[in-house]
Amino acid sequence: MIIGITGTLGGGKGTVVDYLRDKIGFSHYSSSDLLIEILKERGETVDRDGMNRVANELRANNLAGVPAETYKRYEAEDGQSDVIFEALHSADEVEFVKSVGGIVLGVTADPDIRYERISKRGSVKDDVSKEKFIEQQQREESGSDDVSKSNIFAALKHADFILENNSSLDDFHQQIDKILATLK
Fold it and tell me: What backbone torsions phi and psi does residue 25 show, to the nearest 5 degrees?
């Protein structure tokens, strides 16, 4: 089974990954990991802005972007296990995952909840003020007419299923389980 994950900044994509990896045994290929690797190789600052810039560069060369690159790694390393590709940031990236036989889960939550989550998470890409979060959210979610740029809302429109992550972790896990049950 191949699952792609798209969603809003701080919506719960990583929580879906953790659940599928830990409970069911999926392999995980992270867009962030690849982007961080590229930034470090270039000697550039590792932050959300840099990651977004590199992802846009990859999409400018191939609209399937980062998922196409991580899919190549998956095929070279394994190619047989159930796998998650996270995160998809454009409609073309979503369509790429579907083209290789995958389904796509979209994950979202209310903006205030999302900011609270990323503040607590404190990763290298999340150490931002509320104003910076809003700026990044607008850039990543509203996108532009340029298909090589992030456009989370366009990606969400192409998702096969949408998970709303505004409640408890148990509720969120139940939503995931219901989707998995429909796929079996």
Answer: 95, 25
